Fold this protein.
Amino acid sequence: MKVLVVGNGAREHALVWKLLLSPGVSDVYVAPGNGGTALIARNVDIGPTDVRRLADFAAAEGIRLVVVGPEAPLAAGLVDELREAGVPAFGPTRTAAELESSKVFAHRLMTAYGVPCPRAEYFDNFEAARRYVESHDPPFVVKADGLAAGKGTVVAADRAEAVRALERMMVEKVFGAAGERVLIQEFLTGREVSLLAFCDGETVVPMLPACDYKRLLDGDRGPNTGGMGAYCPPSFFGPAEVELAVQTVLRPTVEAMAREGRPFVGVLYAGLMVTADGPKVLEFNVRFGDPEAQVILPLLRSDLLEVLLACVEGRLADLRLEWERGACVGVVLAGAGYPDAPSRGVPIEGLDQVEDGILVFHAGTRLVSAEGRPRLVTDGGRILTVVTCAPTLAEARRRVYRNVERIRFAGAQFRRDIARREVGPEDAPAESPAAKGSNPARTSPVARVPPAGGPVAELEARAQRSQGDLTAWVQLADAYARSGLLEKAASAWAVVTQLAPNDPRAFHNWGSVLLRLGRVGEARAAFGQAFALDPWDPEVNRALGVLHAADGEEALAVEHFRRALQAAGSPEVYVDFADILVRFGRLAEAGRVLEEALARPDLGPYRAEIEARLKKLATGGATG
């Protein structure tokens, strides 16, 4: 069977590679393709949005299946054009593709059919949008309604940043017509995950979940990009979480599209925020993600051609997907000017030095002739995605970075923290800070910020003017909390978590304020995020231990307090742990904890209290 893949990125290279593994595929064409696809398939010089020429080519060449990679040709109606030409195509029609091409349409659909998503307001007038921002508290999520190559979302920590985003979209029109209408969306907290699913208009079959990295620089800093890397699968989103998302998000959305007369065939990609209330949709895409496809497809054991045909022919319910065990990590190498300017004509070296089993998917590359021999040079923003699979994420991460270092071109840039949050900074199993002699607070930028004096109003003004300065917002959040302005403190700490998304103390401090407000579910989610970032932070474990104990979850409460002690927790941790053990009737163990505390030289005023509690235990009394 002849197959045509439309697009020119690393996603399309991965699709071509996977399709060529199918015994049912004889030839693969790529329009327009890149330097990597030219080495394994036949590139065709037709642009992805030239829908008429693509349909004519497919019909004339006897193409039996067209696989559409990027969103722009789907929004332009390529699938509709191909169907009219009698050519089967994998992907949604133009009206179904509005799930991605119009954020307003997607939000209205979700709201109408009860699909969980953030609250949002829509604006097609800049002044009205500006007034909304100035009358509400940050943070804000500002989104261009239309397609903006993955760069049309701005998370604004303050009003000035939000207004600037609106100016760029609605006044300066940096995204053209895509920014004429905008959404201002509720800011959600939690962990982000991408869940993609194959769909045939009725049946929904999820793929393995993945996590991607949108910001250019380590620590989620710098401008938004199309994606700088991904890994699959994340530890925090297992089969139960996938099934919940299918039941509450993916299947209801496909059913809603069918009721609206827009049956959805193709890949439905849900960008989810995992919150204390379950998964909520941040955005929908209507195609394979890039770079998610590069880490999901290598783990697909099933024949990709058979899966795509089952979707197109409406028989997906008869198919069972099979997946390889293990994990996959992908790291994007971008050009020097990315995301603002492409890299052109820079020679790429070292591709012949990568280890066996390493996959290198090309995006912005081109084959040129140099001294009579073909040579690969840069030809875009994102140049390559280097991918490897291994039994564990830690091993996959080690291997991929070992090989990234072997590939060279002038100005190459890449993130060094892809999948680090899953395996730790040294790619090693988590080890208690006590064993390593470390203190989590010393490595936390939030913990290092000193309190600020002066009126709260001055701190508010400084934070609003700061364009997202971490110190200013931490000091404001702290001042709010010390002044008893807890609702404002919670909002300010939410901003801090956005400015320092990898700092566990940001989430711990936010959770502490939420707990004081009685917002227990949100507090639990905040502490859970802090724990995911640093499983050995003693104060985070202490807070989670108390919460689990309040819910009667004895095993979890004890586990967190033990972690807190191993991490050299404060004397209060011993006292609280003993109280929890007594609550669950474990009096002898409570006594041992208090005796262990007495061996510490830094007890200070706690020594007398602990001795008194031990004496009560010895006579059969409670510790409190």
Summary: Residues 239-259 form the longest helix (21 residues).
